[in-house]
Each structure stands twice: as C-alpha cells, then as structure tokens.
Amino acid sequence: MKAAVLHSINNIVYEDIEMKPLKADEVRIKVMAAGICGSDTHKMVSKWKYELPAIMGHEFSGIVVEKGKDVHKFEIGDRVIGIPFEPCFDCEYCHKGEFSLCEDYGMIGTKSYGAFAEFVNVKERNVLPIGDLDFEEAAMVEPLAVALHGVMGIEPQMGDVVAVFGVGTIGMLVIEWLKVAGVKEIIAIDISDEKLQEAMERGCDRSINSLKEDLFEKINEYTNGRGVDIALECAGSNITQEQCLLVTSKKGKVGYLGIAYKDVHLSEQAFENIFRRELTVKGFWNSYSAPFPGKEWTTSIDFLSKGKIKVKDLISHRFLLKDTQKAFHLIINREEPYGKVMILPNQEE
Question: Are the CB atoms for 187 and 167 separated by under 8 Å?
Fold first, then answer.
C-alpha cells in the first residue's frame, strides 16, 4: 500500500510499504479521512519517542475491506471509525474502567501503524459504526470525544460562566459541548482575532484577545469582579495554564485539556489561589470511560449523526496522501491560517 512514512523528525516520505498481516481479531479499514492532531505536530518538532519508521494518524474513518476470522460485529463494506487507544484491559486502572490511565496501552499512529496510509488494521473492539455519517465528520469524532471527556469531567452546571482558553479545534469543540450542557455564558480567550470571531459565530457570548486586551480587567468586567465559575485550558500554553488559576472564582473549577510541552512556573498568587479560593483543579487525558470506549465516543457519533453539533466548518485544509509532508509544513511553519487539516488517503486527484 501507499503510505506517508515518518523516517525522522518532520521527514515524511510517500512510499510503498508492505501491509501488516491481518490478525484474527482485526479488520482492515480503507482510510477515507484522517485528521492531523496537534499532538502529531508537537512530536514532529520536539522528539519522536517511538520506533521509526512510523506511520502517524489516529483520527480516522473509512470502510471495512477485510476482516479476521474471529470478527463478528462488522462486515465488508461497513462504514466505521477507528479508536486509536488500545488499553491492556488487565491493569489496575483498566479493571476500574479508567482506561485512559492504562499502564500498558497501545496507540495507533505512534506505537503501531496509523491512518496516514491507504489502509490500517484495527482490532474489532476498537471499531465503531458510523452509518451514513460523512467520512470527514466521522474523522472528527476522536477530538470531539476528547472535548466531551473534559466537559463531562468538569461537570458544568446550568448558569455557570465558563472561560475557554485557546479556541483551536479542541477549544471550539469544548464550546459546542458547553452549549449542550446549558451554561449561562461562555467567554472565549485567544490571541487570534480570526479564531475569536469564529468562536463568537459558534455561540460564545464574549471574547477576549489577551494579546491586545487586559485579560484580568476584562474578566472582572464581565463577571462583576467575581471571576468565572469554570476555566478550561485548551491551548497547551504555559501562559494560559497559569492564567486559568488567576481568573477563577472562589470554589470554582479549573480543567486542563491542553498538553504542557514546557515547564509551567506558577506565580505566588496563582498557586495561592488554589487553596485560598479552594479551587478544584482537574486534568483530562484522552477520551475514554467504561464500557470502552465510553459515552464520549457514542454520544459524539449520535450528536453528529443527528446534526446537533457541527464540525465540518472547522476543517480548513484537505491534502492527498502524497502531500502529507506539505500538510505538516503548513502547520509547523504556520504558512497560513488553518483549522483542522485532513489527509484523504484514498481520494483521487
């Protein structure tokens, strides 16, 4: 098959490779759409921790074209998505249904070949049907489930005022779920006017460009000096990771969805706010719960299928498989504004 193969940091070669043999409990999926995740690009500019050569891609949808002898839930021609996380189902955390905390997990797109290829092999238990859902929308289920995992975990209440730091793809999807949850007001915070305008069009009530405006003055203005009930960090910035602790009200909650790729040093005030304001601080990793893969995934498919959540407009660029390196150059070098970038491995020119 053809694949976009990673040989070293930001060195992707479009080439022929041998497909892995299909195991008895696996299906082979013809990949129709695969999204580039922010974590993919961070790995590309820092340090790749896994074996090389590798094939990335863990947000994907496609068609079942072959199945192993022990597969009974799917047939050839079924439209599906793949779940990239492969828990061991045997450690302490898996036994408790806390699959995201598995101590010996596999991961499609890092520890095994991913979806930036014409085909990918996936265990039957890591596949969900999508019915007639559009393939590109279906490839957004994984980030949508990540966003829902955080929103479900922070437990917003009707009437809450919520600040969302960073309105990239995950931030926008968090906003979608917050609207479903019935919060009173959503404040979008970013340094891009274009992103903030998109957030307002998506249903945010207020926005703050923290590069141009005084964040703390605006939060005080919008909340009558009280602070927000919930701050959700979706940017993965060491700056916003501290700011969340400075804008949250007494007895408020802070949720971290963005990955920290640098050391985070807290000011005395930020750290003291945790105990003086008795804040609840929670982190959210991945998107899984019991029964595997969890309500995050099944609910995301259901809401997309019924048109209750819109994601197609978040997709800004589409690339053929042979142009995967160009797609990563676009993102890493910030050659132009972008949202979700899709690779379409089986689309013809």
Answer: no
Whole-angstrom Cα distance, residue 340 to residue 349? 21
Give the phi and the psi of residue 79 in degrees, each rounded to 5.
Answer: -90, 125
**318 contacts: CB under 8 Å, gap ≥ 6:** 136, 341, 342, 343, 344, 347
E strand or H helix at 245: helix 238-247
Alpha-carbon gap, residue 165 to 4, rounded angstroms: 33
Q: How far apart are CA 144 and CA 137, in angstroms?
A: 10
**Domain extents in the chain:** 2-140+311-344, 153-283
Pairing of strands 185-190, 206-209: parallel
What does each C-alpha distance from 189 to 49, 66, 148, 234 come to in angstroms? 32, 46, 19, 10
Cis peptide before 291 (omega within 30 of 0): yes
Note the pLDDT tens digit of each residue in 189-230: 999 999 999 999 999 999 999 999 999 999 999 999 999 999
Please check whether the two domains, 2-140+311-344 and 153-283, share a CATH topology.
no
To the nearest 10 degrees (0 to 180), the angle between helices 169-181 and 193-202 is 30
Q: What is the pLDDT of residues 105-154, one digit of tens each?
A: 999 999 999 999 999 999 999 999 999 999 999 999 999 999 999 999 99
The listed CATH number (3.40.50.720, 3.30.70.100, 2.160.10.10, 3.90.420.10) that belongs to domain 153-283: 3.40.50.720
Instruction: For domain 2-140+311-344, give its CATH number from 3.30.450.40, 3.40.50.150, 3.90.180.10, 2.40.160.20.
Output: 3.90.180.10
Task: Give Cβ neighbours of residue 61 (< 8 Å, ≥ 6 apart).
Answer: 31, 32, 33, 34, 79, 80, 81, 82, 130, 133, 135, 136, 138, 139, 141
Per-residue pLDDT, averaged over 80-98, amounts to: 97
